[in-house]
Every structure is written in structure tokens, then in C-alpha cells.
Amino acid sequence: MKAVTVIPGIPESLRLMDIPKPNLGKGQTLLKPIRVGVCGTDKEIIEGRYGKAPEGSQYLILGHEAVAEVVELGDGVDNVSVGDIVIPTVRRPLNCDLPVDFCPINHYLEHGIWGLHGHAAEYSVTDAKYLVRVPKEAIDVAVLTEPLSIVEKGIDLAIKLGQARFDWKPRTALILGAGPVGLLATMTLRLLGLSTVTTATRPLDSLKARLVKELGGTYVDSAVEQITGEFDIVIEATGSPQVINDGLKHMAPNGIYVLLGVYPSGGSLSNLGELMTNVVLNNKVIVGSVNAGIKHFEMALDHLKRAKEELNNWPAKLITKRANLNNYQEAYTWTHDDIKTVLEITPL
Fold first, then answer.
1. Is there a binding annotation on residue 180?
2. 273 among the known binding-site residues?
3. 34 FRET partner, CA 20 to 30 A, in 53, 281, 316, 347?
4. What is the domain range of residue 50?
5. What is the per-residue pLDDT across 55-100, written as a single tens digit (0 to 9) for each?
């Protein structure tokens, strides 16, 4: 079968390889991937800055954002059927009894990222208990489920933390960043009824700005305009240390700040003491969130379905580039105006 591979730690080792079809074990399913999304983590792996091949393999098959068809069942599988369209979640526990998305570093494996082959191939294998069925109404946008699951977990944490203190009813949200995660956060918060401001460095006539406005949100070009006001929920989705600082300044009293970005080493926060004192005196909460469990994948699919129906198929507009196995290299090049690139492996 054909598979998109890299040798982790070796920059620019991206290749399309012919390799054997994977073997099916007990409790596993053989999948025929339909679409695979591409994100910044793939870029880091291709550049040799991250990633780990499975034990005994020199190469790693990419692809952690996938929608696939179940084509064969291993012994003992009864939660899915052949022909089901599913989303495989990303993480698998390694000597960890916690919910898998809360397992600490070195206690999990990740499809297409760390120690497990991904789904950018004609076939892939995964444990059946980590599959989420896709409703037929959401199949065409289901490739967005994994990045949206990250958003769902972060917002879910924010609301639960806020309401654990008192009858907290957030009304406003600031989203820092207008990549896939920032835009999906804007969509979700709008579906939940919040007033949103989304800020990024793209101009007001850019596709990203237009997509925010289509949701009824406000877009701020941070290169030319300042953010004003305070917000009950702040979502940081840029991975920029300086942007963290901006978000802290705009938290409302009792607000929740959700960090979804992954940050480079170095950097500093100005006026850190003043900012942290303000956090303490105003009962603010800062929380980091990574990965997601099955519940948040299911929430993501529900919101994708709603957004298709209520927002004129808005999620489909995030897919701005498509490639296939014949021109797979196109899927792994990036420009400022790309939002979500999709590798189409099998026709829907």
C-alpha cells in the first residue's frame, strides 16, 4: 500500500512509500482512510523537530487528523461495524490509568506523531475502543473533528471551572489567533451564544476575517488595531509568548484563560508581577489544555453538524487546499492564507 512517511529527526525526509498492509490484532479495526487533515504538528515532524517512529520501524506514517471507513474487524470488536465511517482519536495510554488525554508526557503514544503510525495511507490499524462514529450529516466536514475536539475540551474546562465557583454565565470571549483552532473556537463559542472578538495579523479583507464576520463575530487585525474591553473567556491559539501577555490584560474579573498553543522556548512576559497580582485579586483562572478524549470528539461532531445546518455549511469553508497521494507534497507546504489542508486518500 502507499503511505506518506518521514524519518523522525531527519529534516525533509518526507516520502511516499510502498509498504505492506498492516496486520490486524485482537480488539483492532482495519481502516481505509478517506481524508487526513494536515496541521502544524506535521510541519514540526517533517522539519525533524519532533516525532518518533514506532518501535522497530525506521519511519513514521504521518496523519493524526483522520476520517476513515471500517473495512475489517479484529477478534472481540463489537462497538463498530464494517462500513461505519469513524474518527480515530489520537492518543493511546502507555503505563497510565488516567483518561488518556490527561496522561503525562512519556506515558502515551500518538498516531502519526509519537510511536504509532498514522493514517496518511491507503490502510491503517487502530484499537476499536478509540473510534468515534460519524453521523452521515457530518461526513464531508468530519476531517475537522480532531482540531475541534481540542477546542471543545478547552471550552468545556473553562465553563466547568467557572461554574464550580458560582453560577458563572460567560457572555463574552476573546480568541487570539485565526488559524484552524482559533476559527473553530470562534464557531463553537458563537454556537454557545457568546459574543466573540477574534484577533490575528491578517487584514480585514482576508478570508480569515470574512469567516469570523460570517459567524457574527468581530475581527480585529492586531497589526493595525488594538483590542479593547474585557472578556469572560480568553482562548490563546497562536503559540506566541507575547500574545499570552495580551490575553492576560483583557481577562474580565472571574474570567478563564485557556492556553491551547504550544510555545517555543525563550520569550518573556513584561510586567509579570502586576499581571499575576491582577489574576489573584480578581479570581481569574489560567488553564492549559492538550489533546481530547472521546467525549470531546463527540461534542465536536455535534457542533460540526449544527454548524452545517445553522451556519450555511460554514465548516467546509475552512478547507482551503486539497491534495491526494499523487501530489501529496502539495499537502505539506504552507502559506499564510492556508487554513486547513486536507489529503484526500479515498473518494467519499
1. yes
2. no
3. 53
4. 2-133+315-344
5. 999 999 999 999 999 999 999 999 999 999 999 999 999 999 999 9
